[in-house]
């Protein structure tokens, strides 16, 4: 869903996305998601919840980056995909999740994948940070 946003941002910064290769942490998480997609697709809502939720904080990051990097709206589509509609989009997503009916084992799987997604984001961040330092 968010690949077009990433592609626009990379193009803005002159980065060829074909030259970017996933690290170990990203590959590992991708493999987990593919396995879950094949065996328990409802659980993927846990990852979606985390990623959609991150757009709340991403909006604040985008605002700060626009100011400090003197950007005029471009280059931060991934961080701020919805612009002024962010609160309404998040509220609609949450409402949809709250209104959905899940079995207890599905709820547990959704929560577990949300936790896994948080850990994966931290692991990817650590890996990237290590590459930047190294």
Percentage of residues in DSSP E strands: under 5%
Broad shape: globular
Q: What is the end-to-end distance? A: 32 Å
- Rounded radius of gyration (Å): 16 Å
Any low-confidence stretches, pLDDT <50, length ≥5? Answer: none
Helix residue percentage: over 70%
DSSP strand tally: 0
The helix count comes to 5
Average pLDDT: 94
**Biggest β-sheet strands, sense, barrel:** none
Class by helix and strand content? mainly alpha
**Topology order in helix (H) and strand (E) letters:** HHHHH
What features would you describe in this structure?
The two termini are 32 Å apart. This protein has helices at residues 3-12, 24-39, 44-69, 86-99, 104-133. It is built from 5 helices and no strands. The mean pLDDT is 94. Helix 2 packs antiparallel against helix 5. It is mainly alpha-helical. 72% of the residues lie in helices and 0% in strands.
Describe the structure using short key phrases.
mainly alpha, 134 residues
Short description:
With 134 residues, the protein is an all-alpha fold. It is built from 5 helices and no strands.
Question: Mind sketching the topology for me?
Answer:
Layout (H helix, E strand, L loop, with lengths): L2 H10 L11 H16 L4 H26 L16 H14 L4 H30 L1
Helix pairs in contact: 2-5, 3-4, 3-5
